[in-house]
Amino acid sequence: MKPIWLIPLFLCLALPLAAQSEKNNDPYPVNEGTLVGIGGSNLKDTYLSPGKNMNYTGVGLRILNERMRLTRLADHRISRQQVLNVDIAFTNNPAETATNFAGFIDYSLGYHYRFKPLPQLKILTGGSLRGMGGFIYNTRNGNNPTSAKVDIDLNLSAMAIYGLNIGDYPLTFRYQMELPFLGVFFSPHYGQSYYEIFNLGNYSGVVKANSFHNKFAIRNYLTIDFPIRNVTVRAGYLHSYYYTDVNNLQTHIISHSFVIGLVKEFHSFVIRRAKDREKHKSAFY
């Protein structure tokens, strides 16, 4: 294994430890949103279905939890974002003679430097570390019915947050993009069974370094926050595109989800003095 492959693995351990090392009494609230989504999914995996145009389409369901808060880094100009996402898809081939069930879970930890070119506008740029695990299961296959997916990536990440008041009614718009540029992922060879890999030890070449030459993935996330009485609602659209071409196998996982949920802000400690509340800036609003 080339040493460069170890960079995402090292950061996978280092970044969460760095996040835990930050003091829990930072005077900034946590902005947390929990959303559910539904939309369309398009799956293709030539390990399961060798046909080049064998796309499975259907319905996707999603649960997403996101947390953001300011940190002490760079004089409180860097915010931390954590996203936990669960994605499930139920898809059929064009002839509706076979079904692909898919399930994925991914977690990302990102840090963004904040610019404020306008009073209502925040621009956040930085990077994130993302790990993903999951599977695609084909009901028609007998010998190799499942294709496992495991990825660790370093991502470029950028976000724009814009606050707008219509009279006394506040709205907050956000657009975020994430693009992996370096990582490692798991892929068997064409026709290779998991029995060969894990029981017979034929695992040469199944862990690959990835960059733009063999993998392209992008996530676009657009949301709007608005209050309804005493709660804040977050609604939006999430588009995810994932494509790999390695070991004579091609995979794409495409999803379009409309999401909606609730947002809250809270402190990890008690604010005892009213004047201290003014110092507690939101990472999002």
SSE series = HEEEEEEEHEEEEH
**Secondary structure category:** mainly beta
Number of domains: 1
Rg, nearest Å: 21 Å
Determine the fraction of residues in helical runs and give it as a percent range.
Answer: under 10%
> What's the CATH C level?
Mainly Beta
How would you sum up the major sheet? 10 strands, antiparallel, barrel
Q: Report the CATH superfamily.
A: OPCA outer membrane adhesin/invasin
* First-residue to last-residue Cα separation: 44 Å
- Give the overall form: elongated
CATH architecture: Beta Barrel
Query: How many beta-strand runs?
Result: 11
Strand order, biggest sheet?
Answer: 1-2-3-4-5-6-7-9-10-11
Unreliable parts: 1-11, 17-24, 270-279
Bin the strand percentage: over 45%
> What's the tally of helices?
3
- At the fold tier of CATH, the topology name is Lipocalin
Mean pLDDT value: 88
Description:
The chain has 285 residues and is mainly beta. It contains three helices and eleven strands. The radius of gyration is 21 Å and the shape is elongated. Residues 1-11, 17-24 and 270-279 have low confidence and may be disordered.
Would you spell out the secondary-structure blueprint of this structure?
Blueprint: H1 6-21, E1 30-45, E2 56-70, E3 78-92, E4 99-118, E5 121-138, E6 146-166, E7 169-186, H2 194-198, E8 207-210, E9 215-228, E10 231-246, E11 249-266, H3 274-277
Antiparallel strand pairs: 1-2, 1-11, 2-3, 3-4, 4-5, 5-6, 6-7, 7-8, 7-9, 9-10, 10-11
